[in-house]
Structure formats: C-alpha cells, structure tokens
Design goal:
heterotrimer, A mainly alpha (272), B alpha+beta (362), C alpha/beta (318), A: 11 helices, 68% helix, C: 318 residues, Rossmann fold, Alpha-Beta Plaits, five-stranded antiparallel sheet, 28% strand
Chain lengths: 272, 362, 318
C-alpha cells in the first residue's frame, strides 16, 4: 500500500506544482539578494539570511528558515489533510477499503506518503538553494576553509554538511508532526479543505500563543514551540536542549494524533 | 477493540506524554541542615567555583531609558537564554542565545571580548573599573554574589530546599536591613557544597519576583579549556575598544570626580573617575555624567513614561524597584539604582554639590 | 438446499443516530445465485451492501460472507469479493489502466508478475480494451461505469456485489453488462445486484429479496414469485362468442377487456382446443403469471423517500 501511495504522490502533477511554488520563494529571495546586494539588517529577517551574502553555502539553511514557518506547513496540511477526506470525497476510499486495504495500513501509508512529500520538498528546496547560493551569492569556502558557526567559530565543510543534513532532518520531523495532525483531522472532517484549514489554524494559533506571556504554562506543549531550533545546530558547541525537546515533542504529537486518527477511523462508518 | 477502548488508549497516550515532562518535578528535594549564615558565606565566596550550564532569566522591570541604554533595559525587562561556562573569575564565557544568532562574552584574565553573530564582529576591551550590568551578572551564581554582597548573617534566614536542574538546593532568604533599598527580599537556592546560587528571585513588594534567574541545566564540572578560549574564525572581524560601555567611557574621559559618599552610601571604587557606584548588595546606585545631547535624549525618553515626575532639580522615574533620576542643574548626571526615591534624590543633591572637575581642569 | 451460502445475515440492524436504516434483516444468498436486491431509493440497500463489505459497521446482528464472519474476516473474505458501491470511483488524474494497476497493487499479497496481463484482460472483458491513456476525468459516465466494473472483476471474484450497476449506461451498455454478468454467473460466480429497477432484476436474477424501509418483506426464488395465477389470458377477434362458448363449458371468465379475456383454467392447450373446436379464433394465448411489480407493490408501502405528515386525528378528537 505504501508503494501505491508513493506512486500516486509522484504521479500527481499537483505534487510537483506545489514543490515548485514552495521552491520559488527562496529562489526569488536569493536572486533578489544577488542582484541588489541588499541583505536584511543583522538581526532581522529569517535566520542566516543576513549571513548568506558573504557565504552562499549557508543559503540552503536560509531557504529552510524562509519556508519552514508558513509555506511548508501549509503544503503539508493540504497534502495530509487530503489523505482520508480526499479519498472519501472522490469515492475511492470505499474501493480502497474493500480491496481490502486494512484501515491501519491505509493510515500508515498515508502518513508515509505525506512524509515522502516533505522529504522531497525539503531536499528540492535545499538543493535549489545550494545551487542558487553558490552560483549567485558566492562560495566563501573556496577562499577560506570552512564556514562560521553562529557562535563565531569555524566550521569545516564536512561539519557544515553534516549539520545541514541534521537541520533538514529536524525540519522534516517537525513537518511529520503537522502531517499527523492533518491526518487525524482528515479522518474527522468530511472535506479535505476542512482538514487542511483545521491544521493550519492549529499551527497559526500555536505560533500566536507563543508570543503571549500568558501562555507560559502551555508553551512547551505547543507544536510550533521548537520549530526554529534547528538554528541551535549551528552554535558551538551545539545546543541540544531545544532540539531534544523538539524531537520528543514532535514524536509525542505524531504518536497522539496518529493514535487518535486510528481510534477514530478504525470503526468509522464509510458512507461517502 | 471497540471505539471507546481505542479512545481510552489515545487518552492514556496523551496523558503520558503530557505528564512525562512534569514527573521530574515530583522528585522531592532532600532537606539540608546547613545554617543560613554558613550558606550565605558560601554563596558570597563562590566566585572561583567552576560550573557550566544553561540559564533562563525573566525580568519584569520595564525601563524606559532610550536607545543608549536599550541593552540594559533588555537585561532586566526581557527573558534571556544564556549558556555559561565558568572556570573561575578570570576565565569564563557567557553566551546569550537569540532566536537566530547569539551574543557572546568571553573573559580571559583582564580582557573581555564581546562577540555579535549578526555583525560578525568581536570587540575586545580591558576590564574597566566601572561598567554597566551585563549578561554575566545575570547568571544565578553572579546574581547570588551581587545581591548578598555585604549582607550580614542577621539579614538571612533559611528556606526549604528545592530541586533545581536536578540538584537539591537549600534555600536562603535575604531581607535587607537597610531602609534605603526598594528590594523587599531576595530568595535564592544554592548548591550546598559549592555555594553556587542555582536560582535567584528578587522581590520588590509584590508577590511575583521582579527578576528571576535560574539554571535549567547545571553541571558542577568546569568547562573544557577551549570552551572559554578565544576561538573565533578568520571570518569574524576583530576589534579593540578602549571602553567597554557608556559608563566606562564616561568614567575614563568625563572631566569630573564624584564624591566619596552620597546619601550615606560609600563609593565602591577607589579610583578618581567621573562615575560613581555607591552602596552594597541590593542597596546600590550608579551615577553617570552625560553629555548635553545624550542627557536631552534620555530626559525625553523618561518623560515619555506616564510615571515620570519632573522636580525642581531634575526628572525622576521609578519603574518597579529601579529608580532613575536625571539632574537638570549643574552637570547632567543620571543616577539609577535599587534605592528609594528619597535616597536617590539625596544622592543627586550630594553629587551635584560634591562633583569636582579633575585632570587639567583642576 | 445443498448449495453453500454466499451471503447470510441474521438480525442485521443499523442505526444512524436514532434513525433505523436497516432493521432485523436476514439475507440468504447461495453460491451460484444471481440475487436481486430490490428496494426503493432510501430503503437501506446501500447501507446493507456497505455492511456486507465492512464499510459500515452493524449496530447489531451477524453477517457471514462466503462462509466467514464479516467484518472480522475481511482480510480473507474480501479478496474473493468484487464490488461496486453507489457508482464507480477512480483517481481522476490517472488513466483507467493506471487506476486498475493501482487497485491491483493495493490488494494484500498482490503479485507484480502478471499484473499487466490481468489489467488488460479485465479491460477487454468490460469492453474498454482499446481505451487510450486519457485520464479518467475525461471519461463518459458509461466508461466510468465499465471501469468500475473492471475494478470489481480484477481479481476474478467468487462473489460480485454490485450496487446499481447499470446506472448511467445506454441500452446497449445495459445489455452488455447483463450479458457479462450472466456469463460470469455461468462460470460459477455468485452475483448480488441491488437495484431499484424492477425490470433489471426481473431479467437478470434467479432469486429476489425486497427491502422496504429497512425491512426485508419478500425473499424468494424468482420462479416461485412468478408462479402461474391459475388463469389463462387469451385474445380473440370474437370475444362475445368466446364468452358464450366458455360459459357453456362451465369455465368462468374472470376478466373481460375488449378482445382480451382472463379465464380460470389450468391447461392453455386444452382451452385453446375447446375454443377452436367451437369455431372461435384464438390469436393470443398465455399462462398468466404474477409480475414482480405486483409482488413488490403488494409487499411494500409508499416510496421510501416520501415523508407524509402522520395523521393528527388523535389530537383533533380530543
């Protein structure tokens, strides 16, 4: 079933259009930066963006910081929100279930497909950004060995590559949390739009609550709490605290919401 | 499995993941029979104890003091996340974490280097006689030493132990005897063995602390040598500055000499500079001369706050425990401290009356 | 009956909230049957079909499909069941071929070898063998219906469960499907067809169940339902003479409509011989059977989608 879902994902023109649209923003930012040479003022704008003018190899990270807060989670909400509700609306859900595809197996396959979409998107964005960064913004590591960490120490190229991949992996895990929420809502809502909007409102609401002092008590439970913690990978020494908490939080979200999706869907009457 | 049972499973999973992070808090702290006086002296003498850890501070003092002092306003009015590596007083690093960058202070013997990621710049300066508060003053052990500085055994009492960052820490309450301070009391919990304060709460009247600083992670093991060393890469611009901050600059270059004693408080430094720090512990104030332009800016900022009061002799603003007074007669001096308005006004009178020109003007 | 049961339900009941969609239903379909499941729209046919396939869970009652309990044994049973429920559905952005390939791959323990052949063979079977690679969203309703049937036939099922299989088909299409279903049945496939079209069931089925407002009102072999009524229908150019002659013979003419007569008699040949002997021409002659329509109308109440206001006599009287 997983293979079937992946094949459907890769053959859908919408998948590629979405990825292209997500990819377009950081690429545009990169081109504009290169053309105008106007970086954001230090301390403003997305993480790493003020540093990319001097070091294009950091652009994949800046691109990640650009798409992670809004674009990527929206795309994931839409994709995963469609999982069950979309099949139900298209009428294919009943035919999938009588094939028979076990309901739990279907949920797993849907989550894996959503994850595959995230991995694909993140890799495409990172690869494009690397090409754009090196081609347009210059590759500092050619002249000086290594890049600079957020703490100001040198990072060798292997270190930078390793940490970049860790950061990409972390961002993917955060999106898996989004996908699990969307999957659950997809088993509840009768339309995939409802599931996607529900998921979006959860992470927009979470981002809003994070800015309030009054939400102190529930802060550490909010799904977007540690999304930007991937920056901590580029400190020296790496600050694992938030990353660990972020990984645990996302795993907990995936566990709870996947379990909820299963609880709701396993004996749900399929009447569409 | 029925639908109800499955939802029960979900509820159990949810309850477990919500409760799991709270469990460590249930581990009780072990009681300690260390006396208040003994704990106080250990806290005061903890300067050369090595440690490292992760600190969160939460300040509730909203100082409206303009751009020149915005760093200061952040220290006491914001939440800060700090990483600390402390070998001893001479070798440490305090790393302030920002959402997408960081600011470092690295201390090495007599020199302090401050590094700012966004500017890719590291500025080194020698240690000054007088300076404004900085992040390294906010880590709990430093805060513990600053607030208990000069405190007597009869001002302190024991509080029950608390578990902080996994360490069972006996508590100490300091209730300053002096009537000149705005600080009501300071509660702190310290590692019994080393005397390193692990959590410090400063109270000024209300039931919520005006400043809290606490270790969320703590290790009594010292840092690796390279963690407190100067390791910036070649891409970081290096610079040397002969003044650390505005107070240091004024102290060195303003052509004044402040009196030895104001409002009954002794000057803390022996030198003959233009800046004076007076008092001990939580009864403390600083007097800094300002250039006319800077003074006007500050006056404008102060008056922008509805709590500001214009008196015959200057402008007074009291925000929580901190009072700021800017003189308007004679030389422009700004006085600030955790002292009562009355003390601050008296100190201002004493400064205005007692300040002398120095150097070639003498 | 020696044949195994293909579908058996006992006391099958389904509530949606407080609405009772299916009530104490006992289905009995045997292997080799072409079973017609008749009922007006909204009578609970589709809900029943969904319960048989494990899509909707019964509130109470038991279901056995191909001798195994459902939905518990869905994993073993469903691979042998092909189905079409409330119209066909497919992934609209993919071609019919790609859809069948996906559906084939979804099934548990589906092998990759021979998949292409299976798909082509099934497409041929439903008359879509020559279809191009256009996406399903550009298919006509009839093509979609055929594709849906193909998906049901993909794994050579022992039992076909079809809900309104001829919806949207033109007369030629309907005939094709009917022929296909009969051919499959001849090869041993049990066919369960639900429909609201009497004619369709009458032409296709060997056994009929009639559902009315969630209750089974009739379940019988079609041949039994359509038993002779004991009357002979005859047409004659000279009805008056015929009636007079029949009177004389002591036979009762029960109905007289122009030149058509309904006569109570057991043997049509004998009746014909009597009339011809008397010089009365007979140009139509047939044994009267009950029509399925009569059976259904007799057994069911008003349509299930009419909601007449209940009489208020009780309140008015007081």
């Amino acid at each position: 079933m997983i293979r079937v879902e992946l094949s459907k994902l890769l053959r859908s023109r919408r998948t590629w259009t979405t990825i292209a649209l997500i990819d377009a923003l950081p690429t545009l930012v990169g081109v504009l930066l290169a053309v105008t040479d106007l970086g954001p003022r230090p301390g403003e704008g997305p993480a790493f963006l003020s540093a990319v003018l001097t070091d294009g190899t950091l652009f994949p990270l800046a691109a990640l910081a650009i798409v992670l807060p809004l674009f990527l989670p929206i795309a994931v909400s839409v994709t995963a929100g469609e999982a069950i509700a979309g099949e139900a609306a298209a009428g294919t859900l009943r035919y999938v279930l009588v094939r028979p595809v076990g309901r739990l197996r279907l949920l797993v396959a849907k989550l894996v497909a959503a994850m595959a979409f995230v991995v694909l998107t993140v890799l495409v964005v990172a690869a494009t950004a690397y090409v754009v960064g090196v081609a347009l913004l210059g590759d500092q590591s050619v002249q000086v060995v290594g890049s600079t960490s957020v703490s100001g120490t040198s990072l060798s190229t292997p270190e930078l590559v390793g940490r970049t991949f860790l950061a990409l992996g972390y961002a993917m895990l955060c999106m898996l949390g989004v996908a699990a929420i969307a999957l659950f809502l997809s088993t509840v809502a009768s339309s995939s739009l409802g599931a996607a909007l529900g998921t979006m409102s959860i992470f927009v609401g979470s981002s809003l609550l994070l800015t309030l002092d009054a939400s102190e008590a529930i802060r550490d439970y909010l799904p977007t709490r540690y999304w930007l913690a991937f920056v901590d990978l580029f400190r020296d020494p790496i600050l694992w605290r938030d990353l660990q908490a972020g990984v645990i939080l996302q795993v907990a979200y995936v566990a709870v919401f996947f379990a909820a999706a299963w609880a709701n869907f396993a004996t749900k009457d399929v009447t569409d | 499995m029925t639908s109800l049972r499955r939802w029960c499973v979900v509820a159990v999973v949810a309850a477990v993941v919500v409760a799991a992070p709270l469990l460590p808090r249930l581990v009780p702290a072990s009681a300690s029979d260390v006396t208040a006086a003994e704990l106080l002296s250990r806290v005061q003498a903890s300067g050369d104890q090595a440690y490292s850890g992760y600190v969160e501070t939460d300040g509730a003092v909203q100082l409206a003091v303009g751009d020149d002092f915005s760093d200061l306003a952040e220290l006491f009015g914001d939440r800060l996340r700090l990483r600390v590596w402390w070998q001893d007083e001479d070798a440490w690093r305090v790393n302030r974490l920002l959402l997408s960058g960081e600011e470092d202070l690295v201390h090495d013997g007599e020199r302090t280097t401050s590094y700012d990621y966004e500017r890719a710049r590291a500025v080194t300066s020698r240690d000054p006689d007088i300076r404004l508060p900085r992040t390294s003053d906010l880590v709990p052990p430093s805060m513990g030493r600053i607030t208990t500085d000069g405190a007597d055994a009869d001002e302190v009492s024991r509080l029950p132990a608390r578990r902080i960052a996994g360490v069972s820490a006996p508590g100490l309450r300091l209730e300053p005897a002096s009537g000149q301070t705005t600080i009501d009391h300071v509660d702190l919990w310290a590692d019994e063995e080393t005397g390193l304060a692990l959590r410090v709460e400063v109270y000024a009247g209300s039931s919520a602390p005006v400043l809290t600083t606490v270790f969320e992670e703590f290790s009594a093991a010292g840092p690796e040598p390279d963690q407190v060393a100067d390791t910036w890469s070649g891409q970081v611009e290096r610079d040397f500055d002969d003044t650390v901050d505005l107070a240091d600059a004024a102290n060195q270059y303003a052509p004044f000499r402040v009196p030895r004693r104001v409002a009954g408080l002794e000057r803390r430094t022996a030198g003959t500079g233009a800046v004076g720090v007076y008092g001990t512990g939580v009864t403390r104030l600083i007097a800094v001369p300002l250039r006319e332009g800077d003074a006007d800016d500050l006056r404008e900022s102060l008056l922008g706050s509805p709590a500001a009061v214009a008196t015959d002799t200057g402008t007074l603003l009291a925000v929580g425990p901190v009072s700021v007074f800017l003189t308007s007669e004679g030389f422009s001096y700004v006085l600030a401290g955790t002292v009562t308005d009355e003390t601050l006004l008296r100190a201002a009178e004493d400064i205005v009356a007692g300040v002398r020109l120095r150097g070639r003007f003498e | 009956m020696s044949r195994d049961t293909a579908i058996r339900t006992q006391g099958l009941t389904k509530y949606f909230g407080r609405f009772e969609a299916v009530s104490d239903l006992s289905l009995d379909v045997r292997e080799g049957d072409v079973y017609g499941f008749l009922g007006a729209n909204g009578s609970g046919k589709t809900t029943t079909v969904r319960m048989l396939l494990g899509l909707v869970l019964a509130t109470s009652g038991e279901i056995e499909v191909l001798g195994r309990p459902m939905p518990r044994s869905g994993r073993e049973v469903l691979p042998h069941v092909g189905s079409m429920i409330e119209g066909p559905a497919a992934y609209a952005h993919l071609s019919g071929r790609a859809n069948l390939t996906l559906f084939d791959a979804m099934a548990p323990r589906s092998r990759r070898t021979g998949r292409k052949d299976r798909v082509e063979e099934t497409l041929d079977r439903v008359g879509l063998g020559g279809v191009d690679e256009r996406p399903v969203k550009n298919y006509s309703l009839g093509m979609r219906q055929r594709l849906g049937l193909a998906a049901a036939l993909l794994r050579k099922p022992r039992l076909l469960v079809l809900d309104e299989p001829t919806n949207g088909l033109d007369p030629q299409g309907i005939r094709d499907i009917r022929a296909l279903l009969l051919e499959l049945n001849a090869d041993g496939t049990t066919v369960f067809v639900s429909s609201h079209l009497l004619a369709e069931i009458e032409q296709l089925c060997t056994r009929v169940g009639v559902l009315d407002r969630g209750r089974m009102v009739v379940q019988e072999e079609l041949a039994v339902l359509r038993a002779p009524t004991g009357r002979i229908l005859l047409g004659t150019p000279d009805p008056d003479a015929a009636i007079a002659q029949l009177d004389r013979l002591g036979r009762s003419v029960e109905q007289h409509d122009g030149r058509r007569l309904a006569v109570r008699a057991a043997d049509a040949a004998e009746l014909n011989a009597e009339l011809v002997r008397a010089g009365i021409g007979v140009d139509e002659l047939s044994v009267e059977r009950r029509s399925l329509e009569d059976v259904v109308l007799a057994a069911t109440s008003a349509g299930n989608d009419t909601f007449a206001r209940p009489p208020r006599a009780v309140q008015d009287a007081s």
